[in-house]
Specification:
This protein has twelve helices and 14 strands. With 403 residues, it is of the alpha/beta class.
Length: 403
């Protein structure tokens, strides 16, 4: 009897010790969380994780490879970049909108990749938002872009999700890396459906829908990690190795303009490859040309105007950065990159309107203005240049449609 009583007492002591240990652990975690929030101060917002790249706002997409994650919210801090992202319930970095058309209001879709999406700037600074402010109440401008998308994914997004919005105008932004993205199966460590040519030379989509190759553990762990980063300052510090904001260049008071000029000017071999890839725009057998033809036909089928625009990215950095040598001008004192030239040629062949902004960008850059956020994407000033030049063209298109 005494032995049994002794065992019960021992178990009771162990239970009390375990409960005390758990309580002390919870108190320690609570104290750590309070200390972490105090350390981060106003930098920490509950529900808004801090990350170094867009992927925290992205998701696997079996139709497109990847897309914006609906209702995602984050602050992106990476070196010279520091901006906030909010994704609406429809999966666009845009304000909440109704698919139902408002009477008398034209609908414009800005479709593209990271440049149109607004990499490096807050949503209010993008050319799509600036245009909507200026064109309202005559028109609304939806931003229907996703970082990393190629022209193929943009076409599929139009066919799958955007055609039903019955737009009046689609503004498709084409940049140099689109010529690399089209037809690729793996881009930016993410898989996508790919275009393949059959024996007749017709381009078709392969491997769609895509299987989710992540394991069960990864599929469960990703949302848990995002939630921990969003809700716990202690987890944010632990998983990021310290306060990611205070290690950023902006927090140290260093502007990217003060850093040495990066070697982004294309070398001769790279320039030759650039020229060759741009030639695909006027090659009727190329994948990019087939995509543009399909998008033109898709827009025409619903009575929608298509406007192609192009922006400098990964080529001719002098258009955005005054530290680079000024380019050679033609006999009329003009400059146009090979990409812009070939896109204009393709537009004439396809019967599609084209606009570039290289003259306007070069004028501002030559005057000493920085139009680059630090990694070849437009900064807020660059977006304003695009909005200033694009506004009159869109007004012309809308006026023509009203006649």
């Amino acid at each position: 009897m005494q032995a049994s009583t002794s065992k019960q007492a021992s178990r009771s002591r162990r239970s009390r010790a375990a409960l005390l240990g758990c309580g002390l652990a919870l108190l320690a975690l609570a104290a750590g969380e309070l200390a972490a929030r105090a350390w981060l101060g106003a930098d920490f917002r509950s529900g808004e994780p801090i990350a170094r790249q867009w992927k925290i706002c992205g998701r696997f997409d079996p139709r497109l490879g990847w897309s914006n994650r609906p209702l995602a919210r984050a602050r992106i801090v990476d070196g010279t970049l520091d901006y906030r992202v909010r994704i609406n319930s429809q999966g666009w970095r845009d304000r909440e909108r109704s698919p139902r058309r408002a009477p008398g209001v034209a609908r414009i879709l800005a479709l593209g990749d990271s440049l149109t999406w607004g990499w490096g700037v807050d949503a209010s600074e993008r050319f799509s938002e600036l245009l909507e402010q200026r064109l309202a109440p005559q028109a609304e401008v939806w931003n229907t872009s996703t970082p990393g998308w190629g022209t193929d994914q943009e076409l599929w997004a139009f066919e799958d999700r955007l055609r039903a919005l019955e737009p009046d105008v689609v503004v498709l932004c084409l940049v140099f890396n689109d010529l690399q993205d089209v037809g690729a199966e793996l881009r930016y460590d993410m898989r996508k459906p790919r275009l393949v040519a059959d024996a007749s030379g017709t381009w078709r989509v392969d491997s769609r829908p895509l299987p989710d190759e992540r394991g069960v553990i990864a599929r469960l762990a990703d949302p848990l990690r995002r939630e921990l980063l969003a809700q716990s300052a202690l987890c944010l510090l632990a998983l990021s190795g310290g306060n990611p904001l205070r290690f950023s260049l902006q927090q140290q008071g260093i502007r990217w303009q003060e850093l040495p000029v990066e070697a982004r000017e294309l070398r001769p071999a790279e320039r030759a490859l650039f020229e060759a890839r741009c030639q695909a725009l006027v090659d009727p057998r190329s994948a990019i040309r087939a995509l543009l033809e399909q998008l033109r036909a898709g827009c025409a089928a619903i009575g929608c105007e298509l406007l192609l625009i192009t922006l400098p990215h990964q080529h001719d950095p002098c258009l955005l950065d005054p530290r680079y040598p000024r380019p050679a001008l033609d006999a009329q004192g003009r400059f146009q990159s090979t990409l812009a030239l070939r896109l204009h040629e393709a537009g004439l062949q396809l019967g599609v309107e084209v606009q570039d902004f290289e003259r306007e960008l070069l004028e501002r850059s030559s005057a000493g203005e920085f139009l680059d956020c630090g990694d070849s994407h437009l900064n807020a000033a660059g977006h304003r240049v695009v909005a200033d030049a694009l506004e009159p063209r869109l007004r012309e298109i809308l006026a023509r449609r009203q006649r």
